[in-house]
């Protein structure tokens, strides 16, 4: 069984790491804020002093940090993974970051004989806890199959989607689909309410037909109940939409609906709603319609 190094013990990384321990893997952890690694060591992990040290004792190194510059820092930095990883080891980045940056990192690692997979996830903290994450994987197919049991300890729908960076591209497609559908739900609820239709009834009447979606079934009732607690925060969604806009511009694909929802979320952030769940997008729609409800 491979020795695993796990970097980034945040909302997602902690439960994912715990699931690897439960599956019987030997895991070494590193977290920038060292105190957050303490309960992982209590659960059986070893702690490393740096990503470099962690990599020198691991066959597979997993990163689950925030954004592109953070992944670059933990992998390519002075104390980064690349300084300690041996030829034949594999780096799996499970954060959501830029496809182009992913390809650059993979090329740098390849110079040392280290393979890379980009394997961003969907399913939120619940999926991470229950090991039911959807995992979209880019990189060499043989390396993917070698790492499949590791993915199976953390997720359910695991798909190899192409070469390096393509896992990230598919994750950004996922975010376009999710956010544009969310915008449609917010508009429909606001329109129904303004027209005197009970929005609960509107959701019940439409959710099993052609208009049905995860967003309508799960976020719709929260919007109607004015429950804006975050499942997925607007600030994090904005990071993903920025990445999607940048990546789409690189290949000269106009994404008007994506641009619009990104702008509306900026309105939420300006109203200090960035820490709320993405369903709070309805507040931006309501402000446009002069139908604010608190
Ligand atoms: P989080 O709770 O904010 O955790 C971020 C982790 O990254 C922390 O361990 C943090 O260390 C570490 N980190 C950030 N910048 C770093 C740097 N420059 N150097 C070293 N460590 C750094 O975030 P999360 O929700 O777990 O999300 C992690 C990734 O998964 C993100 O790319 C996110 O977009 C993606 N994702 C999240 C969800 C979700 O529902 N939350 C769903 C799917 C995908 P400290 O403890 O020191 O701050």
CATH arch. level architecture of the largest domain: 3-Layer(aba) Sandwich
Specify the helix fraction band: 40-55%
Secondary-structure element series: EHEHEHEHHEHEEHEHEHHHHHH
Low-confidence stretches: none
Strand element count = 9
For the biggest sheet, the summary is: 6 strands, parallel
Physical arrangement of strands within the biggest beta sheet: 3-2-1-4-5-6
Count the DSSP helices: 14
- The CATH topology annotation of the largest domain reads as Rossmann fold
- Compute the separation of the termini in Å: 53 Å
- Name every ligand kind in the structure: NADP nicotinamide-adenine-dinucleotide phosphate
Q: Which superfamily, in CATH terms, is the homologous superfamily of the largest domain?
A: NAD(P)-binding Rossmann-like Domain
Quickly give the structural class: alpha/beta
Q: Which CATH class of the largest domain applies here?
A: Alpha Beta
User: What average pLDDT do the residues reach?
Assistant: 96
Q: What is the subunit organization of this protein?
A: single chain
**Which strand-content bin applies to the residues?**
5-15%
Rg over CA atoms, rounded to whole Å, is: 20 Å
How many domains? The number is 2
